[in-house]
Design brief:
The chain is of the alpha+beta class. The chain has helices at 56-65, 71-86, 96-112, 122-128, 130-147, 152-168, 172-193, 202-220, 229-237, 239-256, 263-283; strands at residues 3-11, 14-19, 23-28, 41-43, 51-53.
């Protein structure tokens, strides 16, 4: 059996079908449900630009969501996810179909009611996840073109986090916690150095990137090579920056509930010292 056996067409773009390997599945694709009747067979070769939800829980959630969503949006989300899948070399977590559909559907309803939700992580998201942000821009642009509704910059950031979540298999709440932690660490640096970062500046971008990679290393448990003599020298030469770096790693440990290798303090000290030097140059 090299075809999908249609059990039921839920709408023009979604069917419930019998898959030769995965049993009952939900299949999402442009026009896949149009004029389909139960017992129709669709060759698997025709499922090239379509997505199959195999997970039982995801299937049930998606079926419950469908009646509440404009069918035009289903088609747009399908285009967006195809666009993302073609631009990434990692498989997407299939939960993105539910998460993105639910999120954007709710955002459209809020827009209709004039409710605006600001995105506190917008700058951070754009700097830390540039590829996902560009994909988010594509999604919001497509919605504007096809539905005539501009959801704005804040939503690009929210969509980017959902895309990152699907690409890394992280729960969206984990991704948000990660973004919040980076924001809090940046604020701590700004307070300690008494320095107001220009969000568009290279210094700000460098700090975010450094913190992002540090958090990713901690999350993955990557061993960071010790700096040995350099570490002692940094502690002696730049005691304030070393102390601040140590404080930042302790915040990371507490929030991530994971150990941070001592070498991270040294690398962070070098970075903070460069920032501090820039601040002093600006003040002179």
């Amino acid at each position: 059996m090299s075809s999908l056996h249609v059990n039921k067409a839920l709408n023009n773009n979604v069917i419930i079908a019998q898959h030769p390997e995965h049993g009952e599945v939900v299949v999402i694709g442009k026009g896949i449900g149009f004029n389909r009747k139960p017992s129709d067979d669709i060759p698997l070769t025709a499922v090239e630009k379509m997505f199959i939800l195999k997970n039982q829980q995801e299937q049930e959630q998606y079926k419950q969501l469908l009646p509440q969503v404009d069918e035009a949006l289903i088609e747009i989300i399908n285009e967006v996810i195809t666009y993302i899948a073609e631009r990434t070399d990692v498989p997407l977590n299939e939960h993105i179909h539910i998460a993105l559909t639910d999120h954007i559907s709710f955002a459209l309803k809020r827009k209709e009611q004039g409710i605006v939700i600001q995105n506190p992580f917008l700058y951070e998201t754009r700097e830390i996840y540039p590829d996902e942000y560009r994909m988010g821009e594509y999604a919001i642009r497509l919605i504007k073109e096809k539905m005539g509704v501009d959801l704005g910059l804040d939503e690009i950031g929210f969509v980017a986090l959902h895309i990152y979540s699907a690409m890394t298999n992280q729960n969206i709440s984990q991704v948000r916690e990660h973004s919040q932690l980076i924001t809090d660490l940046v604020n701590l640096v700004a307070d300690q150095l008494d320095y107001s970062f220009e969000t568009q500046s290279l210094d700000y971008s460098r700090l975010l990137t450094h913190l992002r990679f540090a958090l990713e290393r901690v999350r993955r448990g990557d061993k960071v090579e010790e700096l040995h003599k350099l570490d002692s020298l940094l502690k002696l030469e730049y005691p304030e920056m070393y102390s601040l770096a140590w404080k930042l790693t302790k915040v990371m440990e507490k929030r991530l509930k994971l150990p941070v290798y001592p070498a991270e303090v040294g690398y962070l000290t070098i970075h903070l010292q460069r920032l501090n030097q820039r601040k002093e140059e600006e003040n002179n």
